[in-house]
Amino acid sequence: MSKSYSIAVIPGDGTGPEVSREAMKVLEAASARFGFRIEFHSYDFGGERYLRTGETLPEGAIEELGRHDAILLGAIGHPDVKPGILERGILLRLRFELDQYINLRPVKLYPGVDCPLKDKGPEDIDFVVVRENTEGLYVGGGAFLRKGTPGEVAIQESINTRHGVERCIRFAFQYCRKRNKERKLTLCGKTNVLTFAWDLWQRAFNEISEDYPEIETDYAHVDAITMWFVKNPEWFDVIVTDNMFGDIITDLGAMIQGGMGIAAGGNINPEGVSMFEPIGGSAPKYTGKGMINPLAAICAGAMMLEHLGEEEAARTIERAVMEVTARHVKSLAAGRMGYTTGEVGDLVAGYTEKIRTNP
Ligand code: IPM
Ligand code: MN
Question: C-alpha 177: how far from its chain's center?
Fold first, then answer.
């Protein structure tokens, strides 16, 4: 009997459902070709449901999602819901409660994609950011003192545990080894100012590096790394960093790889259930127009297959996406692709069915 995967799909808000549909289309094409089965189970979590019921994730939702093999998320974010409610109530809650302690964000410039960096091409931009995904400033620790008075104090704490930092760094070393490209891991931090958190990170990094003698190590301050991303992106292979810095530098990473239309990420629990998503938002103004680019969601689907062990299928989808960027779409920007959302999905699905898999 062929392998079968049960996938929870959370299409979510705005253009999330449109891009998820194309990701599923391409995953179906890959499953037919590579001989495995995928069953999709859709969940209506998101802004509409919240406005209707007042609840973000209903009772038992996390347990239920945690019984699937993986989760595919479209987008969360609704113009009529106050910022923070859906982000904390759905996205961050899933990351935390499913203990998806890695946020894996590849930054790769595909052929034919316009890059805002002068004189840089696909051979220069190909690295992966390993972002810690359950700690740091995202824990939500802190307090107000004397709130609403002129003497008000707001404290926002960054929580860094040895356990959390260590498992993230170990994952990064292992990922770098498996990726087997430059075999270089860069720690991105702020050791010159944030002397508690980054002291712990740096010590853990140095100690763990001894278990990976074949991996070259490097360090960059977070402010400097934003400069290097623009000036010398070819220096990077794998980068490991904390939750907040990882959030910030991966938006810059997305821009140098051609924009939010192509950037995908995985929220990974190596021992549990992982969730894959295009990292752009719900783009409400494009909802239902067939203008949004589904490639990021399709790439998230490919990352999901790779994570599930369907590596050849994942590689094939990536190649199919490259054919489409190199030969078809005019731009990755919404409304300027020269194709509708569904047509881009059809193109990728078509190549996924027939493209040669070996170089
Ligand atoms: C991301 C997003 C989220 C984050 C928001 C929506 C909570 O920006 O996935 O990068 O800050 O992690
Ligand atoms: Mn972000």
Answer: 20
pTM assigned to the model: 0.97
Q: What number does the ligand 1 atom closest to the CA of 247 have? A: 10
Yes or no: say if 22 and 344 are a contact pair by the CB < 8 Å rule.
yes
200-257, pLDDT tens digit by residue?
999 999 999 999 999 999 999 999 999 999 999 999 999 999 999 999 999 999 999 9
C-alpha pair distances (Å), 304 with each of 43, 66, 186, 309, 310:
18, 15, 25, 9, 9
- Determine the distance separating the centroid of ligand 2 and the alpha carbon of 175, expressed in angstroms: 22
166-196 pLDDT, tens per residue? 999 999 999 999 999 999 999 999 999 999 9
Report the atom number in ligand 1 closest to the C-alpha of 133. Answer: 12
Closest C-alpha to ligand 1, atom 7: 87
Q: Which residue, chain included where needed, has tokens 């609840």? A: 55
Residues in the chain: 359
Q: Distance between CA 64 and CA 44 in Å, rounded?
A: 13
- How many angstroms separate the CA atoms of 145 and 164, rounded? 29
| Single-letter code of the amino acid located at 69 | D
Domains of the chain: 1-101+270-359 (3.40.718.10), 115-257 (3.40.718.10)
Residue 1: predicted pLDDT: 63
What does the block give as tokens for 61?
Answer: 């939702």
